[in-house]
Amino acid sequence: MKIFVYNYRKFDEAEYFQKFSEEYGVELGICTDEPTLENAHLAEGYEYVTIITSKIDRELMKKFHELGVRMISTRTVGYDHVDIAAAKEFGIHVSNVSYSPECVADYTVMLMLMSIRKMKRIMQRGALNDFSLPGIQGKELPNLTVGVLGTGRIGQAVIRDLSGFRCKIYAYDKYENKAVKEHAQYADLDTIYKECDLITLHMPLLEDNFHLIGKEAISRMKEGVVIVNTARGGLIDTKALIGGIESGKVGAAGLDVIEDEFGMYYHDRKSDVLSKRDLYILRGFPNVVVTPHMAFYTDQAVSDMVKHSIESCLLRAEGKEDPWEVV
Ligand code: COI
Known about the structure:
Order of helices and strands: EHEEHEHEHHEHEEHEHEHEHEH
Strand order of the largest sheet: 8-7-6-9-10-11-12
CATH architecture of the largest domain: 3-Layer(aba) Sandwich
Low-confidence stretches: none
Number of strands: 12
Shape: globular
Number of domains: 2
CATH topology of the largest domain: Rossmann fold
Number of helices: 11
Bound molecules: 2-OXO-4-methylpentanoic acid
Helix content: 25-40%
Mean pLDDT: 97
Strand content: 5-15%
CATH superfamily of the largest domain: NAD(P)-binding Rossmann-like Domain
């Protein structure tokens, strides 16, 4: 069986691709770039393609279909970068992967703590030998009420972690989960906005939750609310968030994701002029920590991403049930 790998990263994925392709007897084709109309021909002769977060729009999907690709597996949990309607139209199967949810959960808790302990200011001041106290008094997690929006694998892991901090936890999801109820109480969004000092997002980005956190939602939140997002940038209306921070309604934010980040992160762009004004504005606030979509990035997660993507293609090839099937 043959799989064509786009976005292949030599410095971290290579060892896992070697290990799991040998283990499963899979032949790999490799391209370090993201798939485009120009390099799609490289996948000719491969029925299975694996990608990361590069956009697969209708045109590219059509091209892959013409080249004989039967399945695209994204080595990510989220698949909002893949045009699923086009995949259905051209009969291409799509799958995602799962990986240790702890990688994102740990990082989320780190952003929460950094936000409530004003770590950005502490570090900025420390670098200038300003060791003064005014303005950096923090809050303690056990004294806070936290709202977790989305209780899939990652939301559940965040709730498990948070239970150790003994804070009050509210959870929101369309589908309630029994394990969550051991540590958290399900509530509607209204209650969460009204009651929570800290709100963290763990939902996939779908049409019906695009800009879930907008001007109106923020206006219903507590004064000084802390918002953490390690899920998808599109869940938050960035302009509304900036307004909330400027007015003081939002006391702090920890953002590992931002709208319109595709194509920007995971590249060295320090010498480029980026037209990402909102990113610059957010980064300029002393109470906002912005990181470049790194919450997933651990050794365990990278190994899981590669392994599960190969396994997903194999299951499809063998006509077996694929737990990662999207369409
Ligand atoms: C995902 O797996 O969905 C992520 O957010 C991480 C990915 C961008 C590498």
